[in-house]
Amino acid sequence: MPELWSEFLPHPWNLVAGGAAAAALLFGFIGLSAFLGIWAERKVSARMQDRLGPTRVGPFGLLQSLADGVKLIAKEDVAPQAADKLLFRAAPYIAFCASFCGFLALPFGSQFVAQNLSVGAFFVLAVLSSEVFGIVLAGYASASKWSLFGGVREAAQVVSYEVPRAMCVVVPVCLAGTLNLNTIGAQQVGWFWNWNVFHDPFTFVAFFVFFITAVASCKRAPFDLAEAESELVAGFHTEYSGIRWSYFFLAEYGSMFAVSGLAALLFLGGWHSGVLPFEPSVEFGFWPGTVLNVAVFVGKCWALVLVMIWMRWSLPRLRIDQVMTTCLKYFLPISCVLLIGVCLWLLMVPAAVTNVVRYALSFGCLALVLGVGASLFRSPVTASARAGELPGAWARR
After folding, report:
1. What residues form the membrane-spanning segments (predicted)?
2. pLDDT tens digits along 240-287
């Protein structure tokens, strides 16, 4: 980005212009993603609960999020009388900045990244982990025991799940031999069986463990313990209103897209579609290829975000002891086994066996996806039930 501006501005103004342009693009992307994510969440939940969801404001209710944003801006920004005013007002910004900074090292295409860091994977994990400071400060500064309890619960959960999540990140890093996310994505060029997720059984399982732990780190259901059922309050952001309350939601949806982008880069081929045996930005030219790369990368991120939304409205909320037990008793040892297993695989398994396993996993998953897709076009069971009878096993009863 600074090289582009060097043609028009001298040093150091080219660096300032490049940084400002990158920040504006990333902020716009996070805002648009949250805008569409909230609408998608409402639509998906409505479908799963046999409702319509937003329909009135804009076509298909698309502008409902905009209307809610205007309402939140117009609301009074209040704080409890006993709250620590400075920390109370700063906590939402800390949470959002942590989520925003994670996008700085995420490449949306070949060399299309705000800051190409040699330790990009480590940087993304580090800055996303700092969101917990905003959560703890929000709960502590609110001068409410319910907010404090919610903040402590979320902090314990987020910090615990960061350990297996980081260990699952090391699994594809061992394959690539680098922490540079742009290099990791470039190494998966070509057909979809070149993706890291299909390299061996350990990377295959590591992808699912990483995704589940990432959902927990984003405070998404069934791991949203800030809102305990026994309390009927909103946890660490109970005392927030108006625009500051919305910053926590921007941080949550931003983190969802950030961890989805990290999963796509580490396991799912990054910006590569899996059906082109070459790098699009090289064959089609930089800008046409980059547009295609960005579209593919954002599409993968959206697919993973929709899975998170699907999980939220499908699974019951867990208790705090169940969440911590799942992390410390199961995911932590499983991630250790995966890390040791992939290292032994790289050292001991011949390349011919790796290729056979790679093809078996990739084409097995392709067959599964095609089978699930074909099942969507089958005639529903209810079509075979006569009037006045229940379908399936309940017929004629």
Report:
1. 20-40, 93-114, 120-142, 163-181, 201-218, 247-271, 291-310, 330-353, 359-377
2. 888 888 888 888 888 999 999 999 999 999 999 989 888 888 888 888
Identify the bridge partners of residue 112 per DSSP, sorted by sequence position.
Answer: 109
Main-chain phi, psi angles of 353, to 5 degrees: -65, -40
| Tokens read off for 392 | 């399936």
CA neighbor of 101 nearest in space, from 69, 75, 134? 134
Using alpha carbons, select from 276, 290, 292, 281 the residue that is nearest to residue 192: 276
Q: Which of 28-32, 42-46, 343-347 has the lowest mean pLDDT?
A: 28-32
Q: Last residue of some domain: 15, 47, 74?
A: 74
Give me the domain span that covers residue 7: 1-74
Q: Is 233 helix (H, G, I), strand (E, B) or coil?
A: coil
Domain tally, the chain: 2
Rounded to two decimals, the pTM is 0.89
Question: What is the mean predicted confidence (pLDDT) over 130-147?
Answer: 90
Query: Which of 91, 90, 116 has the alpha carbon at shortest distance from 105?
Result: 116
Q: Do residues 200 and 223 both lie within one domain?
A: yes
CA distance 331 to 317: 18
User: Dihedral of the CA atoms 108, 368, 339, 312 (nearest 10)?
Assistant: 70
Which amino acid appears at position 4 of this protein?
L
Asked if 158 and 150 touch (Cβ cutoff 8 Å), the reply is no
Looking at residue 75, the DSSP 8-state letter turns out to be S
Q: Among 43, 74, 105, where does a domain finish?
A: 74
44 contacts 313 by C-beta, under 8 angstroms: yes
103 and 281 Cβ atoms separated by less than 8 Å:
no
